């Protein structure tokens, strides 16, 4: 470090010495190793010679050097002298004052206002700020007036190697495939140096590897890391740690350095074949295992990882290739052996398989390393198990004639116990499949018999299930479906396919086909149906009609003559005998109804009734009946509507809207009790329509006309209310035209039926002395007090 500093100082002193020799005598330089700014000459001087004459004198200005230099990170007990300012106007009389302003003036740089010396009072760092721009000016000491214009200059901070290289993005991670060739590029790293890259070699970096050799190398200038060894194997070592150094000063002695780490991971390639952990595998399986069950697992290990370790498994040889299969488990990377077909211990007790495991993804670059597959032998032993009975056939098809006798044997099912012990078998019918119990089975030999009669026309097929159970172990059962087909016998006579009704035109011609009929038979003969048609023996020589058999097994009825008249005979009945071709043949007689009708010239039937003669042309009896029915229905609807409308609008009792009983009589005095007959008019309680004692009712129609007696005329005053009410009650009770009990009767009198009696002053026919108010005590405290008040009043009257 001292030698480097000496070299830098020598570089600075050389130009300064040359400059000092060439300067005029008026310029002074501080005897230091720093640059200085020298200012010579004086400002424009204006000398006053008189009011009439002015002489302008301008002194010669000296050369100005506007740069100074100072080393960074320079420190000492005293401030560092950067340079000195001086002007030719300074005679040394100390009348000139130097002023410094600009970047860092007063804080970083300080000027001696008398001598013009500039000092750095703080430690400088070029990486923080490389140069400072300041302004210097000479002013009068006393007046502070400028003696010359301000001069701007720059102080540059010179760099020293004070920053070590740094790896800003470290530590680093990189990958490279295993088995790579020599010189394969891995990655590159970059370091930075904060020193000045222009000045000297402070920022010139050189890279090297401190740790990680001999596996990797690095380019000194580009920092590209490469493999230094070929065929590095991931299975031997997967991860490497490399320490990288960056050194400045071009790597020379005395330079600063920085380090980082690089983690290199070798990625996998398929360079290893699969290998079975063992060459022979043993498995055992019960003979009654369910198809598809996993019997065992085999695994071939592969040192590679990921898809490079994926292997597929196959059975390539052995005596059980048809019974077993192997599938690959992608997660566990093993092979699963499963059962494809049922096993039988009694038939074969062991099997040998040869399985192979082969890589799925093969890298052709490493095909020379050998086949990427391996084989192993698998031995499977079948264990004996208690098996359920086995039927001789998986399904049975039986046939029986529908006229078979009860308890006759339809067929037989057989089953055996496949085990060595050979347990006896018991047979039964699953009654859920034979709800009507039409069949039975012998429990010992499996013979199926008929339990109820069969009818093929009702059901052709019967599907039942037979159960075979081991006698020694009832849990061992087997089921087999049995289909029973009912065979046909000729037990149904033929008949017309439908209800035929033929129409014969009055103007028809002889030999005209009136109707074509066909027959049907519920039986199903093997050779199909063939019917024979004939007339009854007594009608063979029928004068009106004849029959003709058609090739399609149908029958045509023909008219023998014309001139049929419906007024003479409207309907003809023609019995026809239909026989089948069964053995023995069956027959039946069906009657065809033939109606004589009136037809148009084209043979279109217009009317088949005798009444049609009296009807207007073009209008049939059915049409007239429909029209009359519609008219009658409309009339009935209108009458019902009017009746219901009237019945809804009329009240049950006819009364005048001005019935005085609906009026409200209001008065503000209490009245004088029963003695007072001036307070209200009893006539207001009477219906004006009932003055004569009769109210007509509209809710019912009376059978007898009720003639009530002549009632008393209403009298404004002096009428006994009790007598008036009694009269009205008697009339209502004896009126045969009275409304139903749910009708409303309005009375102005409370009546005598109340348990408490009447509290109204209207009931005044009895004297006060006859009344007893003790019963009011049973109604509660308030009525008890009321009874006491009335009792006190009675006693006072007696006294």
UniProtKB/TrEMBL annotation:
It is found in: Cell membrane. It is a single-pass type I membrane protein. GO terms for biological process: adherens junction organization; calcium-dependent cell-cell adhesion via plasma membrane cell adhesion molecules; cell migration; cell morphogenesis; cell-cell adhesion mediated by cadherin; cell-cell junction assembly; homophilic cell adhesion via plasma membrane adhesion molecules. The keyword Translocase does not apply. Keywords: Calcium, Cell adhesion, Cell membrane, Cleavage on pair of basic residues, Glycoprotein, Membrane, Metal-binding, Repeat, Signal, Transmembrane, Transmembrane helix. Residues 87-167, 168-276, 277-391, 392-496, 496-618 form the Cadherin domain. SMART domains: CA. The chain crosses the membrane at residues 613-642. It comes from the Eukaryota. CDD domains: Cadherin_repeat (cd11304). InterPro entries: Cadherin, Cadherin-like_dom, Cadherin-like_sf, Cadherin_CS, Cadherin_Y-type_LIR, Catenin-bd_sf. GO terms for cellular component: adherens junction; axon terminus; catenin complex; synaptic cleft. It holds the Pfam family Cadherin. GO terms for molecular function: beta-catenin binding; cadherin binding; calcium ion binding. Cadherins are calcium-dependent cell adhesion proteins. This is Cadherin 8. The lineage of its organism: Eukaryota, Metazoa, Chordata, Craniata, Vertebrata.
């Amino acid at each position: 470090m001292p030698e480097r500093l000496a070299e830098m100082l020598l570089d600075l002193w050389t130009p300064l010495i040359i400059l000092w020799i060439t300067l005029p005598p008026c310029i002074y330089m501080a005897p230091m190793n720093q640059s200085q700014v020298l200012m010579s000459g004086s400002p424009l001087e204006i000398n006053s010679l008189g009011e009439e004459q002015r002489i302008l004198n301008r002194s010669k200005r000296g050369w100005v050097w506007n740069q100074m230099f100072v080393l960074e990170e320079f420190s000492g007990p005293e401030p560092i002298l950067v340079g000195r300012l001086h002007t030719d106007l300074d005679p040394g009389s100390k009348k000139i004052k130097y002023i410094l302003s600009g970047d860092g003036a007063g804080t970083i740089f300080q000027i001696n206002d008398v001598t013009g010396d500039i000092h750095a009072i703080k430690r400088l760092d070029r990486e923080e700020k490389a140069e400072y721009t300041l302004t210097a000016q000479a002013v009068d000491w006393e007046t502070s007036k400028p003696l010359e214009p301000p001069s701007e200059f720059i102080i540059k901070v010179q760099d020293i190697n004070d920053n070590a290289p740094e790896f800003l993005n470290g530590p680093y991670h990189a990958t490279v495939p295993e088995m790579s060739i020599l010189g394969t590029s891995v990655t590159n790293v970059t370091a930075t140096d904060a020193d000045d890259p222009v000045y000297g070699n402070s920022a010139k970096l050189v890279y090297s590897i401190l740790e990680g050799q001999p596996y990797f190398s690095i380019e000194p200038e580009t920092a590209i890391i490469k493999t230094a060894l070929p065929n590095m194997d991931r299975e031997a070592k997967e991860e490497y740690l490399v320490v990288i150094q960056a050194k400045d000063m071009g790597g020379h002695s005395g330079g600063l350095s920085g380090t980082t780490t690089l983690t290199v991971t070798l990625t996998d390639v398929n360079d290893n074949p699969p290998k079975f952990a063992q060459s022979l595998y043993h498995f055992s399986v019960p003979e009654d295992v369910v198809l598809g069950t996993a019997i065992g697992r085999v695994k071939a290990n592969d040192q590679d990882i990921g898809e490079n370790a994926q292997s597929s498994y196959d059975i390539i040889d052995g005596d059980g290739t048809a019974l077993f299969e192997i599938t690959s488990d992608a997660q566990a990377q093993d092979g699963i052996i499963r059962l494809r077909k049922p096993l039988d211990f009694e038939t074969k007790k062991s099997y040998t398989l040869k399985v192979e495991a082969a890589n799925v993804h093969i890298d052709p670059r490493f095909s020379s390393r050998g086949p990427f597959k391996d084989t192993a032998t698998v031995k499977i032993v079948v264990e004996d198990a208690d098996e359920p009975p086995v039927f001789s056939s998986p399904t049975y098809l039986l046939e029986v004639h529908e006229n078979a006798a009860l308890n006759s044997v339809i067929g037989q099912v057989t089953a055996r116990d496949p085990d060595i012990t050979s347990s006896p078998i018991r047979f039964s019918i699953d009654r859920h499949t034979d709800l009507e119990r039409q069949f039975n089975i012998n429990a010992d030999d499996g013979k199926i018999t008929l339990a109820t009669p069969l009818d093929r026309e009702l059901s052709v097929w019967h599907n039942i299930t037979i159960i075979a159970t081991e006698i020694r172990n009832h849990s061992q059962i087997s089921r087999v479906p049995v289909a029973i087909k009912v065979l046909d016998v000729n037990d149904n006579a033929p008949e017309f396919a439908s209800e035929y009704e033929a129409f014969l035109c009055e103007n028809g011609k002889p030999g005209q086909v009136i109707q074509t009929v066909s027959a049907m038979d519920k039986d199903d003969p093997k050779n199909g149906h063939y019917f024979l048609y004939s007339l009854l023996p007594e009608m063979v020589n029928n004068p009106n009609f004849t029959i003709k058999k058609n090739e399609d097994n149908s029958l045509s009825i023909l008219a023998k003559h014309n001139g049929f008249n419906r007024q003479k005979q409207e309907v003809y009945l023609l019995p026809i005998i239909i026989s089948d071709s069964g053995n023995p043949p069956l027959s039946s007689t069906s009657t065809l109804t033939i109606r004589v009708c009136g037809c148009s010239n084209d043979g279109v039937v217009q009317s088949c009734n005798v009444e049609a003669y009296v009807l207007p042309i073009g209008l049939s009896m059915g049409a007239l009946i429909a029209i009359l029915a519609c008219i009658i229905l409309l009339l009935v609807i209108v009458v019902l509507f009017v009746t219901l409308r009237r019945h809804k609008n009329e009240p049950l009792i006819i009364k005048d809207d001005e019935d005085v009983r609906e009026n409200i009589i209001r008065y503000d005095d209490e009245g004088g009790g029963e003695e007072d007959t001036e307070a209200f008019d009893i006539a207001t309680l009477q219906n004006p329509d009932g003055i004569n004692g009769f109210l007509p009712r509209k809710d019912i129609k009376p059978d007898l006309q009720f003639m009530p007696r002549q009632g008393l005329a209403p009298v404004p005053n002096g009428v006994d209310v009790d007598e008036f009410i009694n009269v009205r009650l008697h009339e209502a009770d004896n009126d045969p035209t009275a409304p139903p009990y749910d009708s409303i009767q309005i009375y102005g009198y409370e009546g005598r039926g109340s348990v408490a009696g009447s509290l109204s002053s209207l009931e005044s026919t009895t004297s006060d002395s006859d009344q007893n108010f003790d019963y009011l005590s049973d109604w509660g405290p308030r009525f008890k007090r009321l009874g006491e008040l009335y009792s006190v009043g009675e006693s006072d009257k007696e006294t």
